[in-house]
Amino acid sequence: xxxxxxxxxxxxxxxxxxxxxxxxxxxxxxxxxxxxxxxxxxxxxxxxxxxxxxxxxxxxxxxxxxxxxxxxxxxxxxxxxxxxxxxxxxxxxxxxxxxxxxxxxxxxxxxxxxxxxxxxxxxxxxxxxxxxxxxxxxxxxxxxxxxxxxxxxxxxxxxxxxxxxxxxxxxxxxxxxxxxxxxxxxxxxxxxxxxxxxxxxxxxxxxxxxxxxxxxxxxxxxxxxxxxxxxxxxxxxxxxxxxxxxxxxxxxxxxxxxxxxxxxxxxxxxxxxxxxxxxxxxxxxxxxxxxxxxxxxxxxxxxxxxxxxxxxxxxxxxxxxxxxxxxxxxxxxxxxxxxxxxxxxxxxxxxxxxxxxxxxx
Length: 361
Description:
It is built from 21 helices and no strands.
């Protein structure tokens, strides 16, 4: 019986030609396609660095010009409200930058950093942030300095990021900032779950980085497209983000993006950066799984992924697990991996092929 089953399995490989193009053309890329990096545009005059989801209070009247006394009494939970009061008046931004520079309280110094960014003076802004001790800045306010540090000093130690990672682990960040850090560090499934809890109206241009990374995961790309499409339909997404979001949700990765991504991963590997280490581990796992499957140790492969989350696996691994489960007449596992294949690829021919294989059990 098992011999017949094995023959049926290996004979069926000829029937997988409709599925294999989904894998073969991207197998090497998919093994490390956990991230697609989009660099923050530092010369974007349309928006300042976002401090979204921070607690604010309506203590400021837009008609009232802030003075030194206001800045001296400024609390952390009023920083966003102060920014809203200032608006886009360049002369007012410059005036308040000078005022804030003479106030020694951490919230005022932090505000001066944001205002310096608005004036396209990022080096001075980073110096303002660096003048504050890490302990004096609430974790929810560490994201803007982190972003600026990454843009201006990408090769240096980022203490802001270290503190943000601790806050993620302790669930001490606003959900949107948590989602961004999770995506940056490769926890794409966790990041996607966090984004589901955010308000699309708060998404900013650099959330496109996170979405691109999440979309590079074959198991999450379908769900990401649905989330983006639903958010667009709700009318809560900023108009300026619509073209990029539609592109992420609907269009495949271009050859130039793949080439750029591969170069980044190579650099990350050479520098032993976290992205590089994840890429190496992912490639090793994929190679291991191929060897196990080729040697026909199907149950061993199944056992390796009994508690795995399907969305975190490459499509090639899901396909190998499905075929292995069919060979072992494991209906439960075959159902799990077959459903995952159909979820990712809604083509009728894929559904027919998976159903035919299931019917053979």
